[in-house]
Amino acid sequence: MIVESPSRTTRLLIVDDHPLVRSGISSIIQMESDLEVCGEAEDQTTAMNLVAKENPDLVLVDISLKNSNGLNLLKEINQNHPRTLTLAVSMHDEYTYAIRCLKAGAKGYIMKQEGTEKILEAIRCVLTGKTYLSDTMTQATVEQLGAGRAATGSNPVDVLSNRELELFQLTGQGKEISEIARIMNISPRAVEVHRSHIKKKLGLRTSTDIFQMAYDWLRQNGIQP
Question: DSSP secondary structure string, the chain?
Fold first, then answer.
């Protein structure tokens, strides 16, 4: 008699700076008999150590991480562990971040506000080798590419680079130059240079203008300033 060996359980790593969010997503995953959580992390360094140690099949990555940025983590995983799949799971507006995440190496983008079924749908879609975006985002992307435009929304911050957008968000959260420099691992002078570029791109005059616009943008997108 031939005894079939049990199928391999798919291993997932959760990277999010909020313990309650990690716990919630973990609970969703653990209810699936063929999925398991092999680790959790709140920052880029811990996440990369766990990726190397646990060799997960899929890493769920939030955009905002403790002292780091999810876009940078997606790039690092893609560069150093190209066989490891990644899925962005974030509260940030998909029109601003979805395409940025795909360019950084993610195989999909799902907003945390979506229900349990949608999150599992996104996970399983990516695990089958496909790319996951919401129906609305997929349609918008197709329409914009068909019209020869960049696949972004009408948000003015779309003109910012990933690093500029990260600095823009930190500014809206009230971070001082020295703290921004530490979080982004750049010099205070580099922070000023980025701010100068942001002002030029967004048509702003002062650092106070950047703060006000960034603060308003965070609130409009449901992000705690």
Answer: -PPPPPPPPEEEEEE-S-HHHHHHHHHHHHTSTTEEEEEEESSHHHHHHHHHHH--SEEEE-SEETTEEHHHHHHHHHHH-TTSEEEEEESS-HHHHHHHHHHHT-SBEEETTS-HHHHHHHHHHHHTT--B--HHHHHHHHHHHHTT--S--S-GGGGS-HHHHHHHHHHHTT--HHHHHHHHTS-HHHHHHHHHHHHHHHT--SHHHHHHHHHHHHHHTT---
What is the rounded CA–CA span in Å between residue 177 and residue 197?
Answer: 15
Name the fold adopted by 10-144: Rossmann fold (3.40.50)
Q: Where are the domains of the chain?
A: 10-144, 156-220
Q: Tens digits of per-residue pLDDT, 24-62? A: 999 999 999 999 999 999 999 999 999 999 999 999 999
pLDDT tens digit string along 168-219? Answer: 989 998 999 999 998 888 999 999 999 999 999 999 999 899 999 999 888 8
